[in-house]
Amino acid sequence: LHSDIDSGDGNIKYILSGEGAGIIFVIDDKSGNIHATKTLDREERAQYTLTAQAVDRNTNRPLEPPSEFIVKVQDINDNPPEFLHENYHANVPERSNVGTSVIQVTASDADDPTYGNSAKLVYSILEGQPYFSVEAQTGIIRTALPNMDREAKEEYHVVIQAKDMGGHMGGLSGTTKVTITLTDVNDNPPKFPQSVYQMSVSEAAVPGEEVGRVKAKDPDIGENGLVAYSIIDGDGMDMFEITTDYETQEGVVKLKKTLDYETKKSYSLKVEAANVHIDPKFISNGPFKDTVTVKIAVEDADEPPVFLKPSYIFEVQENAASGTVVGKVHAKDPDAANSAIRYSIDRHTDLERYFVINAEDGNIKTIKALDREEMAWHNISVFAVEVHKQHQEAKVPVAIRVVDVNDNAPRFAAAYEAFVCENARSNQQFITISADDKDDSANGPRFIFSLPPEIIHNPNFTLRDNRDNTASVLVRREGFSRQKQDLYLLPIVISDGGVPPLSSTNTLTIRVCGCDSGGSLLSCNAEAYVLNAGLSTGALIAILACIVILLVIVVLFVTLKRQKKEPLIVFEEEDVRENIITYDDEGGGEEDTEAFDIATLQNPDGINGFMPRKDIKPEYQYLPRPGLRPAPNSVDVDDFINTRIQEADNDPTAPPYDSIQIYGYEGRGSVAGSLSSLESATTDSDLDYDYLQNWGPRFKKLADLYGSKDTFDDDS
C-alpha cells in the first residue's frame, strides 16, 4: 500500500485492520507492504476484507480517510473428490438386460468449481468388470453382461473412482465400494434328483398315515422356489394321496384307503412337482415342472379276522322253543395262513343269556323263549378270534328282531266305571269304551266288541260296536232304582284281529245314580252304602256320647293340673340335693354342727323359700311366651306337660333342678366376706357385719360374734 502524500521521509505510518489483520496479514508500517504470515486455505476462507490507513507517525493523526480492500485467495487443486458414502449396497434382478441401472454414486470436490478444472470430476470403474459399468459424468452404475445368474454368483463387489481435473494426469481421486446383490427370479424349474422312488407300507396302516416323502430341487428361493406336488397317474391314485410340506418343500405321500396285502401287493404312482409362481418373462425356459415314479410295496401284516358283513340283522319269533336257530355269522382270516376262527358272544351285551353261539360255525340259537312285549329287539356283539392267535380279535354287532305272535288278548284301555241315571231313557248311550293290545299292530286292531252269548239279550243294557275300535253301551230299558239295585256288572267280550284271534272278557261296573231332569249327576247312593256298611243309629249315638265323656274327663284333669301350682323347689326327704331346712331353734353356736344344716348359712335367702341361682345372675325377669301355654280347655295332657317343661327349661331365673348345686364357693367381692370361724380369731378384718343384726334371731349369735368393732371393744 502506498499513499500519495508519502514523501519517503518516514513520517507516515501505515495501519492495517480487518479480517485476519495482525494474525494472517501484517503490514510494514513504513513501506506499506502487506505479507501473509501463514498458508491460506481457500476451502476454509475464500476472501478477507481489510482496511488500511495512513497516519502521522508522531501524532497518529490520520492523514487521509481509511481505504477498504478485499484479498481473494486463489484456488489450487488441493482437495481430492469424496463420495457421500464409503460403502454402497444395491440390488438388481438376475438375468437383467445389459444397461439396466443399478445405482448412482455421487462424489464432491471442495475445490473451486469456477476456477480451472480442480472440481471437474470423472467416474470410472476399478473393480467389477466385465459385469458392470459406470457412466463417467453421472456415476450411474449399469449392468454390462446379459443373463447374470444368481444361482451361479449372487454377490458382486464393485470399486468406483472419482477423479478431478477432468480425469487428466495430475488430478486427485477418491474411491468407494459398491456391493451389488442379484435378486432371484423364477428362472429354474424344479427337478427330481432321481427318476424312481421306492416305498413300502404295511397293510395294517390306517388311512392318513405317512408312507414316504419325495423332493424336487429348485435352486430358486422364496416364492420362486415354491413347489406343489400332485399325483397325475398310476394304479394307486385311489389308494394314496400326496400333500406338500411347505416348510421342507417335500411331497408327503399318505395312505388314503385301507390296504389288503392279499388283494394287491404293490402300487405305482406318477408324481408331478410344479412351481407355484411362474414368471411370464421366463416362460420360454419351461416347463416349470417335473415328474417322478413312486413305487409302493404293500407289506403283509398279521390281521384280525374279518366278518363278511359289517353288521347282521336276524329275526326270530317270540315264544320260539329253546334251541331255535336265529342266524349265522361268518368271519375269515384275511392272512395267507387262513387260520381257523372261533366265535363267542359278548356277555356284556346279553346279560340275560337269551342266546348262545356255536364256536365253530357261528350259528346263533336261543336259550330261552323270547317275549316281544318285554323286549322287541336284542342287540348283541359277537367276537371272532383266531384259534392260534388269541390276540387277533374282531367284533361285529348283531341285531335280533323278535317277531310278534298273537299271544296277548285285548283288554279295556282303562279302568272304566260307568254311571247311569235312574231316569235314563231307553237306548240312551252313557259310555264309550275302547281297548288296547300289547301285541303288534298286525295282531291287534281291529277290535270286535260283543256281549257273551249267555247274556246277549240282557234286559238292562245293550252293546253297539262302532267299528272304529270303540263300542258304546246303551240303556235297554227305563226305570232304574237305587233302592232296588244300585250296581250292575256287565261282561263284555273283546276280540282282536290276529291270527288266530284272541279274546277276553272284561267287566264293566255300572252304578245307578240320581240325576236331575237335564241328566246331570246328583248323587250315586253314597248314603245307602254308609248305612248298609256301618252301624245302627243308636250305636253311633252311644259311641259319640262315650267320646264326649272322655273329652270332659281329660279337660277336668288338665284344669286341675293348671290350678295346682307346683313349687319351684321340692322338699321331699328323699331329694339328694342340699335344701334349706327351717328349724325352730337357733342352734348352739359355732361349735354346734349337728343342730342344723350348715348350707343354710351359705344361702340366707333360702329361709323365705326362694333360692335364686348363684352361678348365673338373671338379667331380666322371664315372661313365658303366651303361645307356649295350652288353652284352658285343652284335653291334650302330653302337650300340657311338654309346654311346662319347655317353660322351665327356658326360664333363666329358675334353678336347674336336674343338677347338683354346689354353694361352697361364695365368690369374690361379697359384703359379708367369709363366715368361716377358721379365720375369725386370726384375721383382723375391717369389714362391717352390723347388717347381721337385721337377719333375725337365727343369726343373733353371728351378729354378736361379728358385730361392729366399737361394740366389740366396749365389751372387752
TrEMBL record:
Pfam families: CADH_Y-type_LIR, Cadherin. It is a single-pass type I membrane protein. It is found in: Cell membrane. PROSITE patterns: CADHERIN_1, CADHERIN_2. The chain crosses the membrane at residues 539-560. It comes from the Eukaryota. This is CAD11 protein. It comes from Pomatostomus ruficeps. The lineage of its organism: Eukaryota, Metazoa, Chordata, Craniata, Vertebrata.
